[in-house]
Amino acid sequence: MSAIGRLWRRAPAWRLTLAAAVAATGLAVMFPPSLPSWPLLPRPAGSAAGGAGAGAGTAAHYLPQPDPPAPDYGTIESPPVGAGRSGILPFAGRQVPLPAGTWQELVLARSGGADPVQVTVFARIEARRLSGLMLLAAPDPLSAAAGPVAGPQPCYAADAIAHQLIPAAPNQSLLAHECWTITPFDLTDPAARARQDNVLRAGLDRLDRMGVAVPEHMLGTRFLRSDESGWLTALLLLPDRRDEGPAALRRLQDWVKHFAPLFHKGFDGTLVAADLTPAVARDPG
Fold first, then answer.
1. Rounded CA gap, 207 and 128, in Å?
2. Distance, CA of 258 to CA of 36 (rounded, Å)
3. Tens digits of per-residue pLDDT, 206-265?
4. Any residues with CB less than 8 A from the CB of 132 and at least 6 apart, and which?
5. Alpha-carbon distance 285 to 283, whole Å?
6. Regarding beta strands 162-165 and 217-227, do their DSSP bridges make them parallel or antiparallel, or are they unpaired?
7. Which of 53, 83, 158, 264 stands the most exposed, by the fewest C-beta atoms within 10 Å?
């Protein structure tokens, strides 16, 4: 009798294990399981344009990820048009640098639930035409919410045309994320507008009622930073000037690279007026 035969007779545990393995293999062949779809890190394609930072200036390619559920906004209000804001804006216990110009509050919103979120939309209007739109979102300072709402999805936007992932400092919390991305936005098409966030759509609807001309296409730069103390995201929409040639996109990327450090300092509450020099505050929009 062969060694395998003797082992088969004398080792019942081995026989059971071998039979289970053969059965499991057969079931896997007949009914192949579906593989999990984990989000992939950004994979740069082509050569870097601008060459600053990991992934900066490259065409980002990602596997599309499902959109997170829309927040359940408990209140959405349209404040009266005031004198406008400029410089450094206090928001949700942080500081937000505003690009040059005067910014009007369009919409104030607050989500419900255990971790309420504050959202505000600002517009920069020049000669009755929209030259900039900014949406700010952060947890209520009293909610003690930590980390991003549902992971750092903005850092891995599927349609980003430029991006930069900013490495966390050594020994920083796992909740530390920082990045910026540039993505295209279609604002006047009804179907595209219907897919926008409720608060952003409310801001665009108010501009329509005010008789403000809105560009058909804009480029949105999203800044995100989070750590164990909370999170803050800003979406800045500027006119899309890519039809003027590649230099227009390079100008925007160069400006974003200089403006992002101000957003970083504002998150920490260390931003001062001297940081907003005319060269940095004046965006290419």
1. 10
2. 39
3. 999 999 999 999 999 999 998 888 889 999 999 999 999 999 999 999 999 999 999 999
4. 99, 101, 103, 123, 124, 236, 237, 238, 283, 285
5. 5
6. unpaired
7. 83
The Cα 180–Cα 61 span in angstroms is 15
Residue 157 tokens read as 């936007």
* Segment holding 126, helix H or strand E: strand 117-126
Calculate the CA 146 to chain-centre distance.
16
Enter the pTM of the model: 0.72
The 3-state secondary structure of 43-100 reads EEECCCCCCCCCCCCCEEECCCCCCCCCCCEEEEECCCCCCCECCEEEECCEEEECCC
Task: Give pLDDT tens digits for 156-178.
Answer: 777 889 989 888 778 877 788 89
Q: Residue 36 carries which DSSP code?
A: P
CA distance 24 to 272: 65
List the beta strands (DSSP E) in 140-186.
162-165, 177-186
- Residues 199, 236, 284, CA angle at the centre, nearest 5°? 150
- Residue 226, both tokens: 């989070």
How far is it, in rounded angstroms, from Cα 203 to Cα 197? 10
Question: What is the rounded distance in angstroms from the CA atom of residue 125 to the CA atom of residue 120?
Answer: 16
Helices (H), the chain: 3-10, 12-30, 190-194, 198-210, 246-268, 278-281
Beta strands 88-91; 94-97: pairing state: antiparallel
- Cα(208)–Cα(129) distance, integer angstroms: 11
